[in-house]
């Protein structure tokens, strides 16, 4: 689960970076479009100024050349503007794709959150069970301590009993002997 979360976070960060790059590219394209429009305005202004400043003779002489040059300039500017418009459209498509990917990532994150909540609930249940087990272990320890205290009292009083000694290899199970109770042996009455 943690590995999937990390992978999803990495993908989400990469998508964010792509969105930033696309936004930058859009800004650059818009700037260049503005500049092209300014150039078109300048060309038109220059044309007007030339008409006003020059004499009719000069205008007649240079009219054909100027018209051709201006037409070619305007055509080239229009082509550059069209190219930049196409680039902007492509960037818009990429932005839409990135938005869709972000929505998918959000849905996946919501699913992961639900799973983590379920895991938290399970962990809480396990903690409760462990606490109950700890309580039971404490009760068992208390009972064992009481039994040990009773055995110690018997040892202090020095009582002897007929008992079966259960130890491996030392005394058989059927033999009965009198023993003072000692810590290493388990006595059965």
What does this structure look like?
- The protein folds into two domains: 134 residues; 30 residues, no CATH class.
- The protein is mostly helical and 189 residues long.
- Helix 1 runs antiparallel to helix 2.
- The C terminus is likely disordered.
- It has a three-stranded antiparallel beta sheet with strand order 2-1-3, with no helix packed on it.
- It is rod-shaped.
Précis, in short:
This is Golgin subfamily a member 6-like protein 2-related. The protein has 189 residues and is mainly α.
Domain module tally: 2
Calculate Rg over CA atoms. 47 Å
Shape: rod-shaped
Helix content range: over 70%
Question: Spans of 5+ residues with little confidence (pLDDT < 50)?
Answer: 160-189
Oligomer: single chain
Order of strands, main sheet, comes to 2-1-3
Structural class, by secondary structure, is: mainly alpha
How is the main sheet built?
Answer: 3 strands, antiparallel
**Which strand-content bin applies to the residues?**
5-15%
Q: How many beta-strand runs?
A: 3
Q: Round the mean pLDDT to the nearest integer and report it.
A: 78
Give me the number of helical elements.
2
End-to-end separation in angstroms reads 57 Å
Order of helices and strands: HHEEE
List descriptors.
three-stranded antiparallel β-sheet, coiled coil, 189 residues, mainly alpha, 2 helices, Golgin subfamily a member 6-like protein 2-related, disordered C terminus
């Amino acid at each position: 689960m943690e590995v999937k979360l990390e992978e999803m976070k990495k993908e989400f960060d990469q998508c964010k970076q792509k969105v930033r790059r696309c936004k930058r590219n859009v800004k650059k394209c818009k700037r260049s479009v503005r500049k092209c429009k300014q150039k078109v305005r300048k060309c038109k202004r220059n044309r007007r100024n030339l008409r006003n400043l020059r004499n009719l003779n000069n205008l007649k002489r240079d009219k054909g050349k100027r018209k051709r040059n201006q037409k070619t300039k305007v055509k080239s500017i229009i082509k550059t503007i069209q190219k930049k418009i196409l680039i902007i459209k492509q960037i818009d498509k990429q932005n839409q794709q990135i938005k869709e990917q972000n929505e998918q990532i959000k849905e996946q994150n919501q699913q992961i959150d639900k799973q983590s909540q379920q895991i938290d609930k399970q962990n809480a249940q396990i903690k409760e069970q462990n606490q109950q087990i700890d309580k039971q272990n404490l009760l068992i320890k208390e009972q064992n301590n009481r039994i040990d205290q009773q055995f110690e009292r018997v040892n202090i009083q020095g009582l002897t009993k007929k008992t079966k000694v259960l130890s491996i290899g030392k005394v058989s199970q059927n033999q009965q002997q009198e023993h003072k109770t000692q810590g290493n042996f388990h006595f059965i009455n």
